[in-house]
Design a protein that fits this description.
This protein is an all-alpha fold. The protein contains 13 helices and no strands. Helix content is 47%, strand content 0%.
């Protein structure tokens, strides 16, 4: 495996991804479309939290559920106002929005937890200001979210998954994605830059199997696992190209779409259409 710094075209490739990156919006087939529905930061924050809670599995399955929930909230003044008033707790839309192991009761308790956060902190951003380090601040915020949710009883599987803890050692992809949305500057038309109390330089890239495979293929990591150590390793590699904003490449990398059919070897028929074929560091088959 070559170091990314020894691959002469990798920086050009990454910067080329940014040059051709389309801005996001409310109709983008990505969970970021949820906060892009709103102009106000408080509504964006809550839409982002709900979207990130659902962001696993196929986007075509979970994203309509997020937007259905937000549609009902918009009828009640928007996410912040609806959550503060408890206006959607117990609403029939929660049956429609249930997704995989996130059940109707889990969603009811999640919305009630959000209401209590508003009562105690006034906004989601205030909850996240426990440290200047976004990763430590996240850990403290999730600890409190889980503590608040547990006031109504032990956390169910679905609620615990919505509020997954960074202490578990997982990559926490959904939380890292939400931090990217709110911390990174808005100048590329993707993220929002509304949490200026954090520095983009301190963010960690959201990684799942898809991003891990792409990063492995182009030499940003030699680890095949989508865990916290790999998230840090990939971020460290990207920091060589953009120390002030290493996760600026995340949105483009996540949308490359090369994971389908990739066997982590070169020379197969499915390699022909791969956009990173010329940079791929996987061994040749056979």
């Amino acid at each position: 495996m070559h170091s990314p710094l020894t691959q002469p075209h990798l920086r050009e490739f990454l910067d080329g991804l940014l040059a051709h990156q389309a801005p996001a919006g409310p109709n983008t087939p990505d969970p970021i479309s949820a906060p892009h529905r709103y102009d106000g930061p408080r509504d964006r924050e809550w839409a982002g939290l709900l979207a990130s809670a659902f962001a696993f599995g196929r986007v075509g399955l979970f994203l309509p559920k997020v937007h259905a929930l937000l549609d009902v909230m918009d009828e009640r003044g928007g996410p912040h106002a609806a959550l503060a008033a408890g206006a959607v707790e117990g609403h029939p839309v929660l049956h429609q929005a249930a997704y995989r192991w996130i059940r109707t009761g889990d969603l009811h308790r999640l919305l009630r937890t959000c209401r209590k956060v508003i009562e105690r902190h006034h906004s989601l951003s205030r909850l996240f200001q426990g440290s200047a380090d976004p990763i430590l601040a996240l850990q403290l915020a999730v600890d409190e979210l889980r503590h608040i949710a547990a006031e109504d009883g032990p956390l169910t599987r679905g609620l615990a998954y919505c509020l997954s803890s960074p202490r578990s050692g997982s990559a926490c992809k959904r939380w890292m994605m939400m931090l990217r949305w709110f911390v990174r500057p808005a100048d590329d038309g993707v993220d929002f830059g509304i949490w200026d109390f954090f520095s983009p330089a301190d963010l960690v890239i959201p990684v799942d199997t898809h991003v891990t495979r792409i990063s492995h293929a182009i030499g940003l990591t030699n680890r095949p696992h989508a865990d916290w150590r790999n998230a840090q390793a990939i971020t460290s590699a990207l920091r060589q190209f953009s120390p002030e904003d290493p996760v600026r490449y995340d949105y483009s990398l996540a949308h490359l779409g090369i994971s389908q059919g990739c066997r982590t070897v070169r020379g197969r028929p499915e390699c022909e259409g791969c956009p990173v074929r010329d940079l791929c560091t996987f061994p040749v088959e056979g």
